[in-house]
């Protein structure tokens, strides 16, 4: 689903630092994170591990989230799982507009 639609998902000042927030847009489950630099990232909310894991429940360190089930380290910037593990999750473009966080779908 790539339509370049902007969807407001949160207010910037209400997002907790380093704690994931679940967002559902249509059939897509998305994890939203505000990191210590102040940047906000949005990624698919399911670990690429065959048994999955809800990434919005993971531990955030820098620009990475750790899968709460298998401890895989996943980049919030590009969605890539760090070696020695492998895989990738979808990332979403995030914009800040007048204190609002919008995701481009």
UniProtKB/TrEMBL annotation:
Gene3D superfamilies from the UniProt entry: Rieske [2Fe-2S] iron-sulphur domain
Any matching Pfam family: Rieske_2
UniProt keyword Metal-binding, yes or no: yes
Annotated InterPro entries: Rieske-like_NirD (IPR012748), Rieske_2Fe-2S (IPR017941), Rieske_2Fe-2S_sf (IPR036922)
Keyword Metal-binding among record annotations: yes
Domain Rieske: 7-103
Domain of life: Bacteria
Keywords: 2Fe-2S, Iron, Iron-sulfur, Metal-binding, Nitrate assimilation, Oxidoreductase
Name the record gives this protein: Nitrite reductase small subunit NirD
Provenance organism: Aquibacillus rhizosphaerae
